[in-house]
Design goal:
Blueprint lengths: L6 E6 L3 H13 L3 E7 L3 H11 L4 E2 L3 H4 L6 E4 L6 H10 L3 E5 L6 H14 L3 E4 L6 H11 L6 E9 L6 H7 L2 H4 L1 H12 L3 E9 L4 H5 L5 E8 L4 E7 L7 E8 L2 E5 L8 E3 L4 E3 L6 H4 L1 H17 L11 H16 L3 E2 L5
Parallel strand pairs: 1-2, 1-4, 2-3, 4-5, 5-6, 7-10
Antiparallel strand pairs: 7-11, 8-9, 8-15, 9-10, 11-12, 13-14
Helix pairs in contact: 1-12, 4-5, 6-9, 9-13
Bound molecules: nicotinamide-adenine-dinucleotide (NAD).
Length: 340
């Protein structure tokens, strides 16, 4: 791919997130071109390819790996396929963007990271919140010292509706699927490492989630290496929409991220003032971040510089999620170093 001006990408996975990334690349990232789309559900791949005028459509992702004219792949498939696809892409010498997380076991996460390092390809994992303008602003405030010494970090992450039980069964559970974004943000915003977690949780939204062995509501307390403490609270169902709020509090001040309303209008009358609910879900709330993360990946590959977030860095939130699962099971605080 020497001196290419436009990155030729193969997309694997044409589901919910696959469609978002595909449309972003096609319409908002001029430095990339979709050369092929593959999905085991050929109809889904064909439909997406039709919308975007992509002529190479496959059921078998190996056709993408074998195409010498494709520089990079975007792995947008179900989580249980990520590690194998990363290993296959690295072996084929393709640069890799992969959705989070790499895998639900550390053994397979490590195998995939080793394959990336051995091949010397670039690999960025889709922790999109790192590319959201509000989260970035909070990080800058902390990094520049304006918050002073960080003392308390609070993250609220509540979804508007629970996922189908079929998804819950393959997701690895709420901590590895949903809270994993908060664990990543905890490390990022504290500019430190989580050293201990204590998780409590329950089934308050949908008994079917409990029957599938998962929880839908949780509070997690965190201790950081820099001495700060924090909380994360999660629910799979907030009736008012996607609730994404953060507060950082330190010796020099405080900063918050509030919800983005679906529109900025307010209506006032004799009873009160009405604004719209928060934007419905992640596709709306983080639309800008999905484009920014893919754009960053494309630019890093074309410029042959490291990506802003690597496969190796993406291991940390997986380890914290595993510690939270252990804490929930054993009803005690768990040190991160207990997880191997
Ligand atoms: N970063 C985020 O905000 C975010 C949001 C949603 C989903 N995700 C992640 O994206 C991934 C996909 O989630 P989704 O909600 O789009 O799921 P989905 O079920 O809607 O789509 C997954 C697609 O992958 C296809 N697929 C599965 N195995 C395949 C294989 N071996 N080869 C080719 N295609 C294959 C399926 O047929 C399906 O079309 C998950 O890992 C999830 O954690 C991330």
């Amino acid at each position: 791919m020497s001196n290419r001006k436009v990155l030729r990408m193969g997309l694997i996975g044409a589901g919910r997130i696959g469609k978002i990334h595909a449309h972003n690349i096609a319409s908002r990232i001029p430095q990339a071109k979709i050369a092929a789309i593959a999905d085991v559900n050929l109809k889904a791949a064909q439909q997406l390819a039709g919308e975007l005028h992509v002529s190479n459509v496959y059921e078998d992702y190996r056709k993408i790996m074998g195409d010498p004219d494709i520089d990079a792949v975007a792995i947008l498939t179900s989580t249980d396929t990520h590690a194998d696809l990363i290993i296959a892409a690295a072996a084929a010498g393709k640069h890799i963007f992969c959705e989070k997380p790499i895998d639900l076991t550390l053994e397979r996460v490590d195998k995939a990271i080793a394959a990336v390092h051995k091949a010397g390809v670039k690999c960025q994992i889709g922790f999109n919140r790192r590319f959201d303008p509000s989260f970035t602003r909070l990080y800058q405030l902390i990094k520049s010292g304006k918050i002073g010494k960080l003392q308390i970090l609070r993250i609220t992450n509540r979804e508007p509706a629970p996922p189908p039980v079929s998804f819950v069964k393959t997701s690895g559970g709420m901590f590895l699927d949903m809270t994993i974004h908060d664990f990543d943000m905890a490390g990022y915003l504290s500019d430190s490492d989580v050293v201990e977690v204590y998780a409590i949780g329950g089934v308050m939204v949908d008994p079917a989630i409990g029957k599938a062995g998962d929880i839908d509501t949780a509070i997690i307390t965190l201790k950081f290496a820099n001495g700060a403490i924090g909380t994360i609270d999660n629910s799979r169902k907030a009736v008012y929409g996607y609730d994404q709020r953060v507060e950082v509090f330190g010796s020099g001040g405080m900063a918050t991220i509030a919800n983005n309303p679906a529109n900025a209008a307010t209506y006032s009358n004799a009873k009160g003032v009405l604004t719209d609910k928060p934007s419905y879900f992640f596709l709306e709330r983080f639309a800008e971040a999905y484009t920014a993360e893919m754009s960053e990946f494309v630019k890093a590959v074309l410029a042959n510089r490291p990506t802003l977030f690597t496969a190796a860095e993406s291991r940390k939130p997986v380890v914290i999620a595993m510690a939270a699962n252990k804490s929930l099971r054993e009803n005690r605080p768990v040190r991160i170093k207990e997880i191997k």
